[in-house]
Each structure stands twice: as structure tokens, then as C-alpha cells.
Amino acid sequence: MSDFLERASRLQVTEFGYPGPLREQLNAAILAGLKTSTTSLLADYDHPGEELPRAGQHYRLIDSDERAIAIVETTEVRTARLADVDLQHALDEGEGLTSVDEWREVHERFWTGAEHTASTGARATLDDDTLVVLERFRVVELPAS
Question: Which residues lie across from 71 on neighbouring strands?
């Protein structure tokens, strides 16, 4: 086992999107340095074993086949109302979105979609006061080529 895989195997997993094209798109943006923030619903952490990310914590980033592709470090975590997500955070998500309205539309579609509903067991109900977790992160290690 490589040194990278050994280190990565000791870390909690982080994943973006669900396995498939969206996850691969988001991972590519992370590896290219374009995606340095993400947003999740605070309610998604209200399950046994789910903990909010913490600044300074390292995670194993996985691809759709659950292979470790990077080690990332959370650099900042804050909770905000959905209506208070700012443009810089939306831009730093690296998805090519150019406005908070566009960002919100894409995220609301994701959070109310079939995959998210199946994953959480309930369809999200969203409004301006819905609490979200805004996380910033950086890649700290990649596997050796």
C-alpha cells in the first residue's frame, strides 16, 4: 500500500454529490483548485454518527468508486441562513455559477431531488431561514503519480 493510501485510510471520508457524473465533476473542480467551498443542510447532520466538519480536520476525498483521490483539510466552518449565503461562497463552490440566485436554484434542486431524499429519508423543505453549513477546504495531499 502506498504511503498516501495508508494515510488516507485512517481518515474519515468526505464525498461531494452522489456517485456518478456530478461527483466526478465536483472532484475534478476540487483537484483543479476551482472548488474550495461547499454547502450542506444543517439538518443532514441530525443523524446518529453524523458530525459537523471542524476546521483543521483532514478527510479522505473519494471518487465514485470509493477510491481515495486526495486528502483535504477543512479550513473554515460556519452556519448561516440559506438567504445569507454570499456571492463569494457561491463562486468558490467552483461549479461555474455566477450569482447567488443561480447557486440557490441549483442547490435547492439537489437538496429536494430524488437522490438526496432517498439518502436522508425525507424530502427537504427549504426557505430563507433554512440553516446551512458553509465549509471551506483545501487539498493537502494527492497520490503520487
Answer: 60, 141
